[in-house]
Amino acid sequence: MCSVNEEGAEVFEVLKPIEPLELKCRKCLIEDGNVVLQKKFVYCKTCFVPMVTHKFRATVGKSKLVNRGERVLVCVSGSQSSVSLLHMIWTGLQQSTYKRLTFEPVVLYIDESVLHDYPLDQVKKIKELFEKYGLTYHIVKFSAAVYLDNCLNKDTNVDQYNDKLQNIFNNLSDLTLKEDMLMKLRKRAITKLADLLKCTRIMTAENEHKLSIRLLSNVALGRGSQISLDIGLAVNNKNNNNTSLVTIRPMRNLSAKEISYYALFNKLDDFMHSNFLTATSEDESIQKTTERFVNDLQVDFPSTVSTIFRTGEKISEKTSAIAYCLLCQGIMEVNVSPSSAMEATKYSKYVSLMGVKALKLSLKELKNEETNEKNCNGCKCRNKQDLKEKIIESLCYACTHIIQELESLDDLPEEILNKEKERLQFKKMEEQIKDFLL
Amino acid sequence: MEKGLNITTEFTSGLQILFNNIKKHKVVLPETENPWTLGMLLFWIKDNILVDKDKCDLFMKGNTVRPGIIVAVNDQDWELLGDLKYCIKNNDNITFISTLHGG
Ligand SMILES: [Zn+2]
Ligand SMILES: [Zn+2]
After folding, report:
1. Are residues A420 and A326 in contact, defined by beta-carbon separation less than 8 angstroms?
2. B102 in reach of chain A (CB within 8 A)
3. What's the complex ipTM?
4. Residues in chain A within 8 Å Cβ distance of B22
5. Reported pTM
6. Per residue in A294-335, pLDDT tens?
């Protein structure tokens, strides 16, 4: 199926048998069906909801991901997937003893209204929803979560941080990078809040469909080595100082359709949850192009998503990685072999810049050449440019694209800048004492 | 004497952005010679309640819904009802759910 071109797809279509759908539920064989999954499996409402819940519980229960009484940060964005996750957890907490979920959920909503136009009463409605469930919850402004350590304090004025955050995104003209940056900052915010709220597990609501699109987009963005981090069931956040923080994706075995009908049958109201790609054209970003590609295939080949997803699962991270990106905390390629795609990109960029001269110089010399060119003596831009170049050394391939577009680094969260300065100082020190070391 | 059809259309999971941020729309479909089908309804929605006509391709593709949008009539999958060919009945509740990310 991977090599389907237009003609190929047509041939496939003709061969597709046109079988009339069974109208009765395949489980109870009595009730009329309500939902069709993968164009062939028919379920009635009564059998469908437990089936979906069971899949969720099976994923959570797998290999004892969560311990009894453990604090779990449940991230609710307002999307249909996330309100369904909340409902499943709440239902799980109500069940009789032996089936009851035994962890302690802490519900989190990050208010991103600084970046997107949301209805004014959205936060109020989210609050009402959380109150109804009666679970511990926190509603935090996005900019506070990105920039402040005491972001749980609601009285802090966040205006200046709102400006900083908006600045970053205004600086990025490319939708692909904007969306990528948003994902990374969200992740940072969630990790920080988990820490502050003393949670050792994070649950997010991505479904199979979303993760498949993320998988393919990641490859296109040059985040191939970070795939298992971004789509895995349980991912240990190794970059975090206390190594026990694990992100769990309990909805990853559910399809988008299963979740939509779960929400419909349980009358779950979802909320506006925008990103930079909301209502944008499909040609403007890698992520949307990928989404269309997957969705269009899915129309005729109902197993497209699960095929992509199962393939992605087979990709596992290389254990040799020791460096983590300063911005996205993803695995960084260090000491890449000269034949890697990354080096090839570098080389082709270099050749197109230098022309025939390139053939005479080796790639190593290129580095020196580059630094010589960039040292524009004595002008003011130098320091800033310097820090930018230095910080890029601590970033993964995909994140360098984001940072390169930023006019100034001042709007980045301070902890990133501080960490970089720390690293540079350490490097300098190492340089200085190098001669004294045996 | 037969009058138009009273139905409810609902747009959720981000689709409401295209409809003035309102999810539920109670509408009356005018009387026609041929019975109303879901296929006809799509075009009627496009002409009558879709706010920004330029964004039509976020709702429709060709003569059907854009891939990634789920359609249910009274909580029943339209795939079980003959999809575009389904004949709409009075008081039907027709739901359009987007599975696209961020709407
Ligand atoms: Zn049944
Ligand atoms: Zn990175």
Report:
1. yes
2. yes
3. 0.94
4. none
5. 0.86
6. 988 888 888 888 888 888 877 765 555 567 888 988 877 666
